[in-house]
Protein: Carboxylesterase type B domain-containing protein
Amino acid sequence: MKWILQCLVLLCFGDVALSHFQIPGVPIVVLPEYTAHGIKNVTRKGTEAFLYLGLPYVKPPVRFEKPEPLSITPSSFLKPKYAKKWKPACHQVVDVSNSTNTSEDCLYLNIFTPTKVGLKDLPVFVFIHGGGYSYGYTQAYGYEYFVDNFISQNIIMAFLQPGIM
Structure:
């Protein structure tokens, strides 16, 4: 659990990472593990946000094994990750929808940030979807509501997609 929190701190683009490593106006962020390329989105209400969908926070799992943290090498930040689409949901105990794409490789973060960020610290709201670790997935919630209500208030959103326990 400790390494998940450490990854969250790194991947939520906390005060130092966001203010020093994000390229202004472009949804690209450089992390120690990789460089993330996101998308810029404008909601129907006109709120702009950078969306980073499907950021890995651990290595893809090996069946029935404990997930391992991502490795950091001197050149690992050169590895691009295209965080532009939702990743599959974890396998469900109860089928929520027949059209839901599921996979064992489902441990990802979805991060939403304001497009205009100064050097001040921003709060981070960490959202773990409902379902009691038995069913559910982050894509079901979408992003427009959260962008309009949180990003517009300069709150960074981190959607954690935990594995089924």
Q: What stands out?
A: The radius of gyration is 16 Å.
